[in-house]
Amino acid sequence: MRYLDLVRGPATRFGEKTAVVEGDRRITFRELDDRVGRLGAALRARGLRPGDRVALLAANELEYVEIQAACLRSGFALVPLNIRLTERELGFILSDCSPGLLVAGRAEEKRAASLAAEVGIPHVLALGEPQELPSYDDALRQAVPDPGADPEDPELPATILYTSGTTGLPKGAVVDRLGFTARVMTNAVELQTSAADVHQASLPMFHIAAFLSYAHTAVGGTVVMLPEFDPERALRTMERERVTTTVLVPTIITMLLDCSVIDEVDLSALRLVIYGGSSIEPGPLRRALERFGCGFHQQYGMTETGGQTILRPADHDPADTERLSSGGTEAIGLEVRVVDEEDRPLPAGEVGEIVCRGPSVMLQYWNRPEATAEALRGGWFHTGDMGYRDSRGYLHITDRRNDMIITGGENVYPREVEAVLIEHPDIADVAVVGLPDPKWGQTVTAVLVGQAPADEELSAWARQRLAGYKVPRRWVRVPELPRNVTGKVLKHQLRAQLAK
Prior knowledge:
Elements: H1 8-13, E1 18-22, E2 25-28, H2 29-45, E3 53-57, H3 64-74, E4 77-80, H4 87-97, E5 101-104, H5 109-119, E6 123-126, H6 136-142, E7 157-164, E8 170-176, H7 177-191, E9 198-201, H8 210-218, E10 222-225, H9 231-240, E11 245-248, H10 250-257, E12 272-275, H11 282-292, E13 295-302, E14 306-311, H12 321-324, E15 329-330, E16 335-339, E17 352-357, E18 364-365, H13 369-375, E19 381-389, E20 395-399, E21 405-407, E22 410-412, H14 414-421, E23 430-437, E24 441-449, H15 455-463, E25 474-478, H16 491-499
Parallel strand pairs: 1-10, 3-4, 3-5, 5-6, 9-10, 9-11, 11-12, 12-13, 24-25
Antiparallel strand pairs: 1-2, 7-8, 8-18, 13-14, 14-15, 16-17, 17-19, 19-20, 21-22, 23-24
């Protein structure tokens, strides 16, 4: 086998060990391996062939790992969908990737049925006890594993992860089996995962945080699924399951520290908190180190690359504010550079674009050859993020890609929000920026020119067309937007103006 099978090895070594937990539901590695084989057979029985896409619209449910593992083993590309998106947003993604089958989570049956009819998806299966759609569990019970039908090709797509680009339209980053293997193995090594680990998936599995879970599965560790994040439930689950590692964002770390039960729960099993989305301030870090009593591990990366650089536990010194504000140094298997406009490497201290290469970088954007060529020119993935190296080699990110906003760990692309707002008949001109927020990191802020409808009307308009976290929380009116000679909005100037 020329790629990593997530489940086969652990099933041989740790057959009766719990592989995945969700609430009161548990599954062993042996059971998981059998279901992975059955799902592959069930998909083939519905006419899917290697390279075809399987979309998944679900929260962090028990079946998430087995669906990805089955797609990986049988040569299908899993397209995990963000359940917070609207039907309009989901419809675009599904139309773009044309899946042969859609799997609906327990709370998504109605939306999945509507989307399948709208887009023309030939097959749909629903988790749990569906009322109308065919049952996922019934499909597995009727299937017989056929290992001989699983292809060996390491370059088959394993997953397509959709991310918004500079135009605001989502692009599908294709990760083949080799890239998938590289991401899992890099995380397994960097996190020092073992079969003794119990990992709590606190962030959605449709994000790249899923690879942290898969890194635990691959070595025989247990993955604990949280379908919805609630601070008290997360802490109680960590105590009950003796969680050793978990993945969070700085906002959630603060929410856990402020939770009323934080001093009641036993978190002594916890050895590592993994986080991303942004750096963590020294004050909250000191609180977290004291209360959690474990190592902290930050990853800087993106959908197209996985984790590029890492700020490791030894780097988390609250007194070293320069290092703490950085994104760390290269992850194993990745090369990272800071380059000028001619792609020439820059010395320490000089700001340029961050580029990277390595086996975990995406193969291409789905059906986007021009965007692929632009992003991967010269063999390096061009992140669009600006940054610099300090004298010790640590990477610092100065400006996020294309003014991207990070709010509560979620990425929001201003152009996507602007495109929706400008459709409103009473909006003449608008720019969307992120402003600092002590709780969420940044607040999505819409800057409107001249007279415009009331905030409540605009919020309702946006909420019908965008996921909730993308809807502006702050609305500002100005006489005009600052622009350069070519007409481009000077967003850095706008942010500075609004920060006063």
